[in-house]
């Protein structure tokens, strides 16, 4: 099984997800959007699978710092450009289990995903 966790290392929810995976003994790789960057092709895949409404974090400070014009123009066509320029706006954590994508973290969600 290949498990990759995407996020930002100082995000509290990502920290909780990493701790859960470690305590459950699940081998995973962590990729930090901010430090490691994001591949445009990978981001396009995420947008195609999850949709821009699910993938864009509208609760964070990066979203709030955008102009009203940028917020209003967000759609499927503009999301990739916006997220590549502002990787902190990608909802996190994003968990990839053998190619299957899951957004967010709740202990019970991860327990189901890993049959724990």
UniProtKB/TrEMBL annotation:
Record PROSITE patterns: ARSC
Pfam family of the protein (one): ArsC
SUPFAM superfamilies with a match to the protein in the record: Thioredoxin-like
Superkingdom of this protein's organism: Bacteria
Name assigned to this protein: ArsC family reductase
Recorded family membership: Belongs to the ArsC family.
């Amino acid at each position: 099984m290949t498990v990759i966790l995407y996020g930002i290392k100082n995000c509290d929810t990502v920290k909780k997800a990493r701790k859960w995976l470690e305590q459950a003994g699940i081998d995973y790789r962590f990729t930090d959007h901010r430090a490691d960057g994001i591949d445009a092709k990978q981001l396009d895949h995420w947008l195609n699978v999850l949709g821009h409404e699910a993938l864009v974090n509208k609760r964070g400070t990066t979203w709030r710092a955008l102009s009203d014009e940028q917020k209003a123009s967000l759609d499927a066509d503009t999301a990739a450009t916006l997220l590549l320029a502002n990787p902190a706006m990608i909802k996190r954590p994003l968990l990839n289990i053998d190619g299957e994508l899951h957004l967010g973290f709740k202990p019970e969600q991860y327990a189901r995903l890993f049959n724990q």
